Amino acid sequence: MRTTAGIISFLRNSSLYETEKPYLVLLPLSQDANVDKSIPRSNLLYEDQNVDIEDVRGLEEHYRLEECGFQYMRHNTSITSLLGLKGDGPTISDVEAYKSEVEVFLKEFLQATHVVCYDFRIRENVVYDREDIDLRNPLLREGPAVGAHTDVTARSGPEMIINHLNASDCQKFNNPSYRFRIVNTWRSLNPVCEDSPLAFCDYRSVEPKDLIPSDRVIPERAGEVYYLLHNNTQKWAHLSRQTPSELAVFVLYDNKPGPQAKYCPHISFRNPACPPDAPPRRSVETRSIVISPMQP
Hints:
Blueprint (H helix, E strand, L loop, with lengths): L2 E9 L11 E3 L3 H4 L13 E10 L9 H4 L1 E5 L17 H18 L4 E11 L16 E2 L6 E2 L5 H9 L2 H7 L4 E11 L9 E4 L9 E8 L2 E8 L7 E3 L7 E9 L11 E3 L13 E12 L3
């Protein structure tokens, strides 16, 4: 198995967090204007670490969602306008069509009863010259995230599910006979992804003490994510030269008791094998609530 010595950013193990909970405020200017200007919008401190990242190319079948928290699946999208440059695509209709595609795929892949894709985001590894962002805009483009993390915690998972299911679904599925998962999909929009590829930390190698609950304030609510402290026992993996038809699927939350993966820390990394003329990474990701029968 090939290994890449990549650079990954982690939350710094700072004494600051003995007295303050880590947080990040992401509000549009219209809402941020009502927040005390003396309060910093973030207290997140990061540190870069050189990490050995295993290349799973040719060994994909050994990495399963239930075991390590991530899995690569062959899946093509029929939505051809996602790779628009600087605002020339996609449209709202394209976004909804892509989310529907993901729902159909996850329902079959995970043998689910019901799937709700509630979030869609395109990311580009470019510098944006703008003063305002609104995370409620489905056409918003963001740069790659900073700091190894997982988007949902044991506390915020149920809150996310309640927030994004309609009243009828809540009434129908809110009983112990159903398993609730929050699942992310990630697709390269480059023909080959070499710049800032996405890496995953094997769930089985994560020590709970290295997961730091952190507040994330967005327009609708104050949510919570886990940031990851670096630990030499962690095992990281990625798929080299990932193509658009090689869909990464990874778990963010799972309410089923048992030893299966319940989250998967992830982050893009600086790839030393990236050619200097490689195009900036472009990718599309979704988050979905997946409801299936609770089985032993």
